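W.,

You were right to be curious about this one. When I first looked at the sequence I had no strong expectations either way, so I just let the prediction run and decided to look at it fresh. Below is the sequence, 138 residues in total, followed by the output.
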Amino acid sequence: MNAHITTNTATTNTATTAEELIRSTERARLRALVDGNTQRALEYHSDDFELITPIGARLTREQYLGAVAAGQINYLSWEPGPIAVRCEANTATIRYQATLEVEFGGHRVARTSYWHTDSYELHAGRWQAVWSQATEIR
């Protein structure tokens, strides 16, 4: 697979803050998805994870990661911008713009920018995505 992901490492937060840990977790989640590594991606998605796609479809974790594993969703690149984080105790919300290249069902989607909003929860000491929504920027 000829895929890549870029990350924005310009941050004033240290790696020990909860906000930076959540940013690092999101970047690792994206890396696993671009690499098609669904076993690794499982670590970053809660059991009750749901994705709302840019066209309004709702996918469970099994449906989403199953589609990635089967090649029905093939991320060619995912380039996130700065990730804003709002964190409170065991929950966090993140928001960022990203540019993606992706294939759906073998059809390549033109390089497009999206807003991403994700909610995370702390489960057994690990931050996991619970809800995720992407909206195309036009």
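Here's what jumped out at me. Confidence is low (pLDDT under 50) at residues 1-15. And, maybe more interesting for your project: Residues 103 and 122 are 31 Å apart (CA to CA).

Coffee later to discuss?

I.
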